[in-house]
Structures
1.
Amino acid sequence: MPTLPKSGIAPDEVLAAMMDARGEDADWRRGRLWSLVYHGGAEHTGTLHRAYELFSAENGLSPKAFPSLARFEAEIIGMLAGLLGDAGARGSMTSCGSESIMLAVKAYRDHARVAKPRIWRPEMLVPSSAHPAFFKAAEYLDVVARPIPVGPDYRAVAGAMADAVNGDTILLVGSAPSFPQGVVDPIDELGRIALDRGVGLHVDACLGTFMLAFLDRIGRSAPRFDFRVPGVTSVSADLHKYGYAAKGASAVLYREPKLLRSQVFVYKDWPGGHFSSPGVTGTRPGGIIAAAYAALLTLGTDGYTRLAREAMELTGTLLRGIRGIPGLHVLGKPDMSVFAFAADGYDIYAVADALEKKGWHMDRQNNPNSLHMIVTPHHGQAVGAFLEDLRAATARARQRPPDESSRRAVLYGITDDAGTG
Ligand SMILES: *Cc1c(COP(=O)(O)O)cnc(C)c1O
């Protein structure tokens, strides 16, 4: 491992070496990666960079020192509240969807400690398709997360969720949409259960907010998923996905201010002063808040509508193409621009192997084994070539005996045996 250089290396040299280091990275710039990157175009990215630069040194931890950042954040939350159907909703920006979810779980837990002190071990009911962040939050916060199997359509089963509610339940979870199959859970039904049983309902719209909220403007029907649904008490929404903000930007919003108050950490006895912080992080990067603010204001309703239209058109082309390839099927009925497809009785990972040889980076899922796609307008350049390569890869994989494929499902982050070092 290298050590800290004694005298600094020239910036040009360091930056050139960093450019070189990208050689092995997934080729998202040519649309060869179907996840992780949400690119709003070169001009838009330039705007994000300029906004970031303006505030790269500022720290949103102190709204007193930087009222500019406090105002940007308040306006971002206000714009999101409007999009999510309750202008009165309150919330805060966070560093990622996982933090938004973690803070929501913390807010419900701490609120329940006061409102339902009899609950010894608080529980949340989490559809099995929900993001691992709920299980991470459960582990960090000592809240029990009970996975409830989804139905054959990959959506949460409202009846099963209702049956699982007990005296310790503080929270129901629904996704809009779920990551693995891109389907929106029956939020209306979950809302009725939440109201009936007097528990919270968090909708994880990290992935969906900036698509679903614009689908009706392009003449497509979107399932109701937000504060318009009675019983929904909080929503998480990632700015750094289809919000096309710079990475490190998400938000969590609550229908009632009392939950937001339970989210905020306050410590008054510190010799360093009265400390209060809404999220997991202390320092809150000004550049990220500024870039998200610039994204929302420069794109506006028309910009997000255009981006949603383009993503949905490309999704349509891909779905038609995949459904037309013998031996492949799409899982469930995806509600927006995220979906998975699987093989009819052979090894779909063999298809992924062949595609990867052609330079595509494929996300492998399991239960059931499938390949996952998140479509953005930036994929326009790649859709034709992808379908062609997929057709060839599928034809070949169907001939191949199933036990040949050695690769396991995609693992996000480090593997069990890799360690952190
Ligand atoms: C991405 C995602 C999250 C988590 O967001 P991060 O920013 O990666 O922490 C949560 N839920 C869903 C549905 C997501 O797609």
2.
Amino acid sequence: MRDPKSPQELSPQTLAIRGAQLQTEEMSHSEALFMTSSFCYESAEQAAARFERTEEGNIYSRFINPTVGVFEKRVALLEGAERGVAFASGMAAITALMMSLLQAGDHVILSRSIFGTTTRLFSSYLAKFGIEFTQVDIDRVDQWQAALQGNTKMLFLESPSNPLTQIADIAALAELAHGIDARLVVDNTFCSPVFQQPLRLGADIVMHSATKYIDGQGRALGGILVGNEADMEEVHMYLRTSGASLSPFNAWVFIKGLDTLALRMQAHDAATLELAHWLREQPGIAKVHYIGLEDHPQYRLAQRQQSGFGAVMAFAVEDAKGQASKQAAWDFINATQWLTITSNLGDSKTTLTHPGSTSHGKLTPEARAEAGIAENLIRISVGLEAVADIKAELTRGLAALGHQVD
Ligand SMILES: *Cc1c(COP(=O)(O)O)cnc(C)c1O
């Protein structure tokens, strides 16, 4: 097999295409898809050896499959991790992480601005098993510090945050966590390993919803955790027991997605930066929230810990009479012709959403205001269409609010 001998010397762009290749005796050039539930043995002796784990090898796709294995190894290489374990979805990965590494009596500190379903996992389910949590502002190291308790076992965050693109000082929080023997876990979905590698900044475990940029074309659900061998062994044993396994077919789709990940991320990023600069010059745009703008308070930190800013941003609109209302945001969204109205993100298709009545709709108005989710805020996940065409769509939105754009 012609595999890179020292993968750590290769750049991520190459590793995403060449890392952990799987060659069978058929010598197919593209990675093979092993769409099978189980594997067979040469003899009863071999079957016994596999089950005793005295012989490495395939057994059953709930916990081991060669196609899934390529995906796990490749993402681990990209993140600089010892090992990866893949799951049926991002949420399955997060659930497995908590179930395998936490126990009753443990305390976790969560960034307030994480994926809402992750918060619900803690408030509705883990709480029933005696796992407590505290929520803090992502960008306030002092709040993280003040929330530390004797039984704190994990700090969990997503950076940049959705939709306001606030970021965490990952190195500072890793130091805090390690001071009390807790783990720092980063949901790195928004940056993908192309723009941010949290383990290199001191984090212990990284999680991805592969459903987003790793697939990048809105086709398949999946998730992955990467970290050290000991932690991933625990996580893998939980996967073997609970069975939220990634389909080999989806793993194969993700492997194909990884081939173009670096190129796609660069294109997403460049388009978003251009749109951010353009948007804030337009009438009717009250504010643009994007970590890639020089006047974002955390711009310098982002430059230090990320190599790109990402493709999610939020902007606040007002109509020609100065009304900064939910109706203005809805009118703007409804006036576009083909941008997709959906809360999904990380797709080649550009999507628009009104956080105040969707992702953050269940919060009280006060809680929403505290989270910085204004009624007139729109989130855009910038896709790979021509920037000029996206601008024309956003111009239709502004025109519907009575603004003239030249
Ligand atoms: C979508 C998403 C998840 C959940 O992933 P699924 O694959 O939908 O289960 C977790 N974190 C972030 C940041 C996400 O965007």
